[in-house]
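User: Predict the structure for this protein chain, please.
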Amino acid sequence: MTTTNGQHATDDQTTKPAAKKPKSKGAKKTAKPTWTLTETALAYLESLKAARKSESTINAYAADLDLATEVLGAETPIAAITPADVERFNASQQVTTTKSGRAKAQPTIERSRRVLRLALTFAEQQGAIETAPIEAKPRAKKDVPLSQREVLGHDDAKLYPAADPSDPAQIAYASTGEQASA
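Assistant: Here is the predicted structure, written as structure tokens:
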């Protein structure tokens, strides 16, 4: 066997494995990213681009995240954001009023609030924070699956009473008004 510099390798050099590093007995630590609010916003917007969201959606979400960095601080570590900070953002003048002082439309206000929630949830999913600092929002009735909805007391027998057996069905054609034969 010849090495790269032209010398012959000895048996010791060819049969000995390289020395291994000793393994540490301690638990393996995984470094958690420490994202700022700006870094979170940028990462979330990149995920929207990767998901092929429209440019108008990405631009609107970027404007809402700019509001969040304005209110909460661009360099604020997201691990330091509390539910009280999120509430402060939700109630802030930047979220609820326009620059001219008029009240914003409710759907616009809700979108701004939702975008911050989504970005914080994204950071949680990415492992940047342990838990997103948002309070659980009660689900609207439409968000609850049909199988889990509470029955409101509608009784089919009251809504659709059974036909009297002596009363034959009367079906008429809508176009002509003629009675249909059975």
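The first helix runs from residue 11 to 15.
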